[in-house]
């Protein structure tokens, strides 16, 4: 993960990050009550579940998830990379989580609590960063 723009640089509106994913991974179903989230695919093919719709996205596509709508994605058989414009403060979730992960595995309830602090609400606890 590379953080390109932090929330403080956008008057509290959004952050911009880039993620590279290995094959067949993705987060558990979740939502963001603080704002919409947009993904611009730089490499690979992803499959998104947004609400009850499945969307296949390839290099060059941009997918936007409206504020408060449940979503998750899978990085596909070859993995991929995307740029994400995230709701405000979400970069802090990834930063705090990475600090804990450097010391070992983070328990699900701890990660869920950290996510909640930064405007990410998990709606399921299974399939988190595994084949979804």
Automatic annotation (TrEMBL):
<dbReference type="Pfam" id="PF07883">
    <property type="entry name" value="Cupin_2"/>
</dbReference>
<dbReference type="InterPro" id="IPR014710">
    <property type="entry name" value="RmlC-like_jellyroll"/>
</dbReference>
<dbReference type="InterPro" id="IPR011051">
    <property type="entry name" value="RmlC_Cupin_sf"/>
</dbReference>
<protein>
    <recommendedName>
        <fullName>Cupin type-2 domain-containing protein</fullName>
    </recommendedName>
</protein>
<feature type="domain" description="Cupin type-2">
    <location>
        <begin position="22"/>
        <end position="85"/>
    </location>
</feature>
<dbReference type="InterPro" id="IPR013096">
    <property type="entry name" value="Cupin_2"/>
</dbReference>
<dbReference type="InterPro" id="IPR053146">
    <property type="entry name" value="QDO-like"/>
</dbReference>
